[in-house]
Structures are given as C-alpha cells and as structure tokens.
Write a structure and sequence with these properties.
Layout lengths: L5 E9 L2 E7 L10 E8 L14 E7 L4 E5 L6 E10 L2 E2 L10 E2 L10 E7 L5 E6 L2
Antiparallel strand pairs: 1-2, 2-5, 3-4, 3-6, 6-7, 6-8, 9-10
Length: 133
C-alpha cells in the first residue's frame, strides 16, 4: 500500500469550488493509480455518513497528478479536505486534513423555497418549515 499524501493544501477557495494540491507519499513499489478526495463540511454530522468517520468521499482523481479541483461546494459552509492514495496493493491511510478550512461565502439562493408553513407553538416559540427545491 502507498503511504498517505502529505501537505494537503487549498490553493483556491471561491465561486463554490476549491483547488487542492498535495505531496505524494512513498508508492512502496507499486505506482499510484489514483487519489481519493474526502471532505468534512460544517453541515455534516458524523453519524449521517455511511462510514461514520465524518468525512464524505467527494472525488476520485485518476492518474498520478497531485492536484484536484472540486466544484459544487455549498455557500455558508466551511470545508476541510483529506486525500488517500491508491495503487494495486490497496489504499493508504487518509492524509492529515487541510490546515486552513475553505470557507464558502454567503450567497443568495437561486430560487425561493416552496411550501413555506408556520406553526405557532406558544408565545415565545414559532416554527417555520419549507421544502427545498
């Protein structure tokens, strides 16, 4: 198995995308075939993900290039990223997370919510629910 990548760094973080670079670890006698990129986001709860790690697999980078551009990141969120290397012998451990989070700026929604409902539950308690498109 390869050693994990090191020095995972965010070099671009805006416009709902992030670009990462990293230093490959030792391949250990088998060429790296791809990298797997994971993220932690401020809105994910650890127990909501299938592996229970708090990280979500975001992308697979085919080849040996130590860079990835990730798009579709949501506004109002803070992201950290991890990377694993993979070769014919297996997967490395995950890298350390990026030291500085990628903070997506606030943004207006593209559409208004649907089925907005209110519920009065007392003098100091008011609930608003809606359906996201």
């Amino acid at each position: 198995m390869p050693d994990p990548p090191v020095n995972v760094t965010i070099v671009h973080c805006r416009d709902n995308s992030a670009t990462l670079i990293w230093t490959p670890g030792n391949e250990n006698n088998a060429q790296v075939t791809n990298y797997l990129v994971y993220l932690n986001a401020s809105f994910y709860k650890t127990n909501s993900l299938s592996d229970g790690s708090g990280s979500l697999h975001l992308a697979t980078v085919t080849g040996r290039s130590p860079t990835a551009t990730l798009s579709g990141l949501l506004p109002w969120q803070n992201y950290t990223f991890y990377v694993e290397a993979q070769n014919r012998l297996g997967r490395s451990r995950r890298s350390d997370p990026t030291l500085v989070p990628c903070s997506m700026p606030p943004q207006r929604p593209a559409t208004n919510p649907e089925n907005v409902c209110t519920e009065d539950r007392g003098p100091d308690y008011f609930v608003i629910t809606w359906k996201v498109r």
